[in-house]
Amino acid sequence: MRVRTPAGLALLVALAACNADDRPVDLQPDGPPPSSSPTGDLPSGGTLDDPTVVEPENALLDWKDSGFEAGARYVRGAEWEAVGDEAGTEVELARDGDAVTVRAGAGRTISEVLMSETWAVVVRQDKAETEPSQVVSVDLSSGEQGEVVSPAAASGGSWALVDGDLRYPTYGDDRAYCLATSALADSNGEDGWCAPERSGFSGLTASEHGVGIMTFDDARPVACRTVNLLDPGGVPQPLEGPEDCTGWDVAATADGAVWSEVPKPRRQEEAHFHASADGTYFDLGPGTTGSAVPCGDSVFFVRDPQGPEEPARLMRWTPDRTLEVAYESASVGNAFLGEPVCGGGVLSLSSFGEEGDELVWASVG
Fold first, then answer.
1. Using CA atoms, how far apart are residues 299 and 292, in angstroms rounded to an integer?
2. Contact (CB, 8 A) for 300 and 313
3. Do residues 178 and 189 touch, judged by C-beta distance below 8 A?
4. Is 134 in a helix, a strand, or coil?
5. Which class for 240: exposed (0-12), middle (13-18), buried (19 or more C-beta within 10 A)?
6. Where is this region: Disordered (predicted)?
7. How many other β-carbons are positioned within 10 Å of the β-carbon of residue 162?
8. pLDDT band at residue 268, thresholds of 50, 70 and 90?
């Protein structure tokens, strides 16, 4: 439930520094030669050095007006919607005939609201950032509230929710920055992988296909960033494909991953997106850092206008290995989109421009 912020603020914790001896590994099995389709009728990509350039197709989703102003704190789910006030003092979750209100409380602010098909999570962050965050879970089948108390949540950081599994930052021994997992149904939480000293992680994404995480070190003037998927043991494994130290977004797919790279370190808002599928590779074109989100069966990302007569677009990489335009802004040139938010198969999106702003939602299907 966030709008566009400067990309540099997204960094939070990471892996050891990149170097020539730490080569990424490919989490996907070796694919067939690019000249053949690896799964029947699905298109195959190119090689790592010569990926297939994918041209987008128009396939707009059925967008509906949320009734709220663009930029509002809003998440839409299959049945519920979450609306937060601008001051971050409370969030109301509502559906026909039911409502649940979660208040931040004294000295705290609502920093995160996440929703899946079955759960919602509201994070109450300490304004002074000296105390752990308080985490409220809401069972969407009943509206019953609970708390995630262990492991204790770090203040701020990157969060992800898929089904009933919540992933969030915590502190381990000697204040190591670690990735925790909590099964909301039974409040069973546990510590996981911890970032090495002087490194961190951010950009968590989660879907039924896996968990993506961007790790980084403290190199100056530009940190070395690596995009990873968690292996079955919960340890980040670098993707095969991205140029060393340039990765930013990452999300798992059924047969590979989608990721972005930042080619110009001083223009961190501008990225180039790629995808892998069964060991072959695709060039998805330009996009905006920090905007990739898995939702339903696809991965979405934002593309700013590519010229004075071009709209802002929401792009969709599908399981059929097609790149689709899922949304176009009414404005052209001076237009932009907020970060898309997924609420269990439903996307919410704010759009801004001279022809008017809007906050809309659509079922992904």
1. 7
2. no
3. no
4. strand
5. middle
6. 23-52
7. 21
8. confident
Sign for the pseudo-dihedral over CA of 118, 343, 179, 319: positive
Distances (CA, A) of 3 to 172, 216, 258, 292: 30, 23, 21, 13
Domain boundaries, the chain: 52-363
Among 127-131, 206-210, 217-221, where is mean pLDDT lowest? Answer: 217-221
Q: pLDDT value at position 314?
A: 98
Summarised one tens digit per residue, pLDDT across range 77-120 is 999 999 999 999 999 999 998 999 999 999 999 999 999 999 99
Cα dist. 230→203, 211, 256, 289 in Å?
Answer: 13, 6, 13, 20
Tell me the one-letter amino acid at 148.
V
CB 23 within 8 A of CB 241: no
Length of the chain as a residue count = 365
Mean pLDDT of 124-147: 96
Measured CA distances, 343 to 77, 100, 145, 228, 339 (Å): 4, 17, 18, 23, 13
Query: 52-363 is classed in which CATH architecture?
Result: 7 Propeller (2.130)
Burial class (CB in 10 A: 0-12, 13-18, 19+), 314: buried
DSSP conformation letters of 326-346: EEEEEEESSEEE---EEBSSE
The 10 Å Cβ neighbour count of residue 52 is 18
Query: What is the longest distance spanned by two Cα atoms in the chain?
Result: 62
**Residues 6-26, mean pLDDT to the nearest whole number:** 37
Residue with tokens 């089948």: 141
pLDDT of residue 97: 84
Q: What pLDDT, on the 0 to 100 scale, is given for residue 29?
A: 37
pLDDT band at 266 (very low <50, low <70, confident <90, very high): confident
- Are the C-beta atoms of residues 260 and 285 closer than 8 Å to each other? no
Question: Whose CA is closest to 251, among 268, 232, 276, 284?
Answer: 276
For residues 69 and 358, what is the distance between their CA atoms, to the nearest angstrom?
Answer: 6
